[in-house]
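Extended Data, record IST1-like protein
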Amino acid sequence: MEAIVNVFLRKKFKTSRVKILAKLAISRAQILWKQRQVRYSHAKSDVIELLKLGYQERALLRVEHVMKEQNMMDAFAMIMDYCSLLIDRVMLLKKNKECPEELKEAISSLIFASSRCGEFPELQKIRGIFVSRFGREFAAHAIELRNNSGVNPKIIQKLSTQWPSLDSRSEVLKDIASENGIILNMEEDEEKFEDDELSEDENDVLPKDLKTRKKYRDVAAAALEAFESAAYAAAAARAAVELSRPKYEDTDR
């Protein structure tokens, strides 16, 4: 029965729907990227302030958030690039019943990202289309990172939930210090730190004066997020109108 349903769905495959969802995904990714950029800037500012105040150990903890936000920004940028590629070459999906080789990395990486980005409903819908088009096994290869999955190793690393190592945090901290003309004494701090002793609660990291500053920055960030969400809602409404048009208006028929 499932095979019959899949055959039916493949016949009903509409490239116009892929294009609309890809455009919506780009809009969503742009908003999420900007939100992460704000958090990245805040976290980096905190690290700089901590270093200037002499709280080098706390800065080494806080730099983890800088790395996390940078990774998410990079991942969203990759998602936007892959969606743009889908839009440009969507007709390849119409012509091929199997996943085109030149789109395999993009499609597999988007399917993988959909399983790691819960805040991204458009990716879930795109994954659903490709599951219907190419089958559940194709999607499982990407999500479970099986052999020859086609997923870009870079996006795997960017969306990893593993904590960054002490060495990688130290390198980022050194770079931030160098950019701001701050001299570090990393040897002493590296002897004091063990990975399993790190706290995930940033309130344990920030001194009281920086916590107050962060509170006001978070209010501004929330206002920006509300504005951008409203802009996205308008774009989604326009897309809904496109998707609800009568079938005879679909150019792919």
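Summary. The two ends are 26 Å apart (CA to CA).
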